[in-house]
Structure formats: structure tokens, C-alpha cells
């Protein structure tokens, strides 16, 4: 066995820092609750009124709930790609703003 082969394998190994790991695990863990939110938006939360604005707000809530897992996976992919390119932790955590924006529509929906 050649010692340089081990060195090459270690250089290709990606090391995930603690802040990036914490953010990744938080958003991946939140996918466990996604079916509950999907059920709630689909069956338990009727539109408040028959006005076009109420129906549109409800549609945006349902669509943002459906797209949340896609946004989490997109953020994970962009973060992984950023780490491969040697980006800083802040740049790697930044894509997780996308699913956070989808999740932030829930309080906006109930407060307005």
C-alpha cells in the first residue's frame, strides 16, 4: 500500500463545520413535520372567506407548504456544492434562507 494514496483520500474528504451541520440537521429534521403541515393546509384550514384575496392567500399557503421540501433539498445541494468549492460557512448557510422564507409565510398567514 502506498502512503500517498491515503493522503489523497484524506484531501478529498469534506469536513462539515459545526454551524453548517447544525443548520443542515435543523432543516432536514423539520421535514419530519412536513406531512403534518401539509395535512393541516390541505384539509383543516379552509379559506377564511369567499373573497379572491382570501382564496389567493390560502393558495399561497398550500403552495409554500408543498414546496418546502424542495426548497430544503435545493438548499442542501447548494450548501454541499459551496463546501466543495471552498466557500465560507456563511456562504454555505445562506441557501437555507430559501426554505426559511417558505416557513415564514405561516405566521404571516395567521397574523394578516
| Count of structural domains | 1
Q: Which class of secondary structure composition applies to the elements?
A: mainly alpha
Q: Give the total of beta strands.
A: 0
The total of helices stands at 6
Reported for the largest beta sheet, the result is: none
Q: Determine the N-to-C terminus distance.
A: 66 Å
Order of helices and strands: HHHHHH
Shape: elongated
Integer-rounded radius of gyration: 19 Å
Low-confidence blocks of residues: none
As a percent range, the share of strand residues is: under 5%
Helix content: over 70%
Overall average pLDDT: 82
Search tags:
112 residues; mainly alpha; 6 helices; 78% helix; elongated
Question: Layout of helices and strands, plus pairs?
Answer:
Blueprint: H1 3-12, H2 18-30, H3 34-44, H4 52-84, H5 89-93, H6 97-111
Helix pairs in contact: 2-4, 3-4, 4-6
Structure description:
This protein is mainly α. The chain has one domain. The protein is built from six helices and no strands. The protein has helices at about 5-10, 20-30, 35-45, 50-85, 90-95, 95-110. α2 runs antiparallel to α4. The longest helix has about 35 residues, at about 50-85. The model has no long low-confidence stretch (mean pLDDT about 80).
In short:
The protein has 112 residues and is mainly α.
Amino acid at each position: 500500500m502506498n502512503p500517498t494514496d491515503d493522503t489523497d483520500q484524506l484531501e478529498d474528504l469534506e469536513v462539515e463545520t459545526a454551524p453548517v451541520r447544525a443548520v443542515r440537521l435543523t432543516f432536514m429534521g423539520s421535514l419530519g413535520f412536513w406531512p403534518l403541515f401539509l395535512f393541516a393546509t390541505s384539509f383543516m384550514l379552509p379559506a377564511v372567506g369567499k373573497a379572491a384575496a382570501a382564496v389567493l392567500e390560502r393558495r399561497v399557503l398550500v403552495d409554500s407548504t408543498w414546496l418546502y421540501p424542495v426548497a430544503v433539498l435545493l438548499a442542501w445541494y447548494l450548501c454541499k456544492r459551496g463546501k466543495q468549492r471552498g466557500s465560507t460557512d456563511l456562504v454555505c448557510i445562506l441557501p437555507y434562507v430559501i426554505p426559511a422564507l417558505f416557513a415564514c409565510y405561516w405566521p404571516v398567514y395567521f397574523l394578516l
